[in-house]
Specification:
- By secondary structure, the protein is α/β, with parallel strands linked by helices.
- The protein has 3 domains: 52 residues, lambda repressor-like DNA-binding domains (434 Repressor (Amino-terminal Domain), Orthogonal Bundle), CATH 1.10.260; 125 residues, Rossmann fold, CATH 3.40.50; 131 residues, Rossmann fold (3-Layer(aba) Sandwich).
- Helix content is 43%, strand content 13%.
- A 5-stranded parallel beta sheet has the order 2-1-3-4-5, with helices on both faces. Strands 7-6-8-9 form a 4-stranded parallel beta sheet, sandwiched between helices.
- Helix 9 links the parallel strand 6 and strand 7.
- The radius of gyration is 25 Å and the shape is elongated.
- 42% of the residues are buried.
């Protein structure tokens, strides 16, 4: 196995110069080319542990997500990992399970692995806790905006997305609209509920929600919440689900009660995960550009590591209405099927 001493001899430079090239230090272009050529010729493999001790960097990034399953987190992780790997770095992923204790354990695990930067999609840790953490280790926060960490946050305009969804239903003639929210401890759920209310209130004759039932962002939660609406006798001709998973559960519950989508009840989701276009009917929804979220978060993490990240915050990612088959015109505002 070749050594750094042999590389230095082959390139005709000092060992310290080879170290600077390996660690991204300042050398002339000509010197860098000679060292890289010597490395290739000798098939030199740097000792990763030795380099990490010398530079206090491991070239490893850590990511905490709520879950490792499902299309939403899959797209997020895949895009972030691809960007980080392009820069010859590695990404370690841990699950926080959307619980404060789980999120803290995942962060501690990644810190023990000596990750250079953490990318965090956490739901239960407070802003204050994340601000304090950022003073110990560089972090990028995903799906959440913290003003004190503006340059390190990548997030969606959730309220605007909910307004787009609700406004479509109103434009199609629906006046009795129910909403299946996510867990109300989560900020994105709160923002989507706020957008739902804002769109209803903006009408010339402000509308009241038919009902708001709290769900859990899971298929089963959407099913249970819709069954509750039906059992309670709530009148609604349209249903806005805070994500596509719950929309699937809602459609199942409606069918079991002999209600057709969209003929009897229109349904709109949120996220536009890959299966939304394959449902029957194809699901009208709000696109969450989650792959873009993963890409931007990884790019900012790389800049944070090398000290080139500007503190100026980014504008939130823009949601987009995706119109398919699950929402139709409602002719008579007083004629609800429920």
């Amino acid at each position: 196995m070749s050594t750094i001493k042999q590389v230095a001899s082959q390139a005709g430079v000092a060992q310290s110069t080879v170290s600077r090239v390996l660690n991204g230090g300042s050398v002339s272009k000509r010197t860098q080319e000679r060292v890289l050529h010597a490395i290739e010729t000798l098939n030199f493999k740097p000792n990763t542990l030795a380099r990490s001790l010398a530079t206090n960097r491991t070239g490893t990034f850590g990511m905490v997500v709520g879950d490792l399953a499902g299309p939403f987190f899959g797209s997020l992780m895949q895009e972030a990992e691809a960007v980080i790997r392009q820069h010859d770095k590695l990404l370690i992923i841990a699950r926080g399970n959307s619980r404060a204790t789980g999120e803290r354990e995942a962060i501690e695990y990644l810190r023990e692995k000596r990750c250079d930067v953490l990318l965090l999609q956490v739901d239960e840790l407070t802003d204050a806790e994340l601000i304090a953490l950022s003073k110990d280790i560089p972090i990028v926060v995903m799906n959440r905006h913290i003003p004190e960490l503006a340059g390190q946050c990548v997030y969606l305009d959730n309220q605007l997305g909910a307004e787009l969804a609700t406004s479509l239903l109103i434009e199609r003639g629906h006046r009795h609209i129910a909403h299946l929210s996510g867990p109300m401890t989560r900020r994105d759920s709160q923002q989507r509920v706020a957008g739902f209310h804002a769109a209803l209130a903006r009408q010339p004759h402000p509308l009241e929600p038919a009902a708001i039932v709290e769900g859990d962002y899971q298929v089963e939660g959407g099913y249970a919440a819709t069954c509750k609406l039906l059992a309670d006798g709530v009148r609604f001709s349209a249903l806005f689900s805070a994500n596509d998973n719950m929309a699937i559960g809602a459609i199942e519950a409606l069918r079991e009660h002999n209600l057709r989508v969209p003929d009897d009840v229109s349904v709109i989701g949120f996220d536009d995960v890959f299966f939304a276009r394959h449902l029957t009917p194809k699901l009208t929804t709000i696109e969450y550009p989650v792959a873009e979220l993963g890409r931007i978060a990884a790019e900012r993490a790389l800049k944070l590591m090398d000290g080139t990240l500007e503190p100026t915050g980014l504008a939130p990612l823009a949601p987009r209405l995706i119109t398919r088959e699950s929402v139709i015109n409602h002719q008579d505002a007083d004629d609800t099927h429920i």
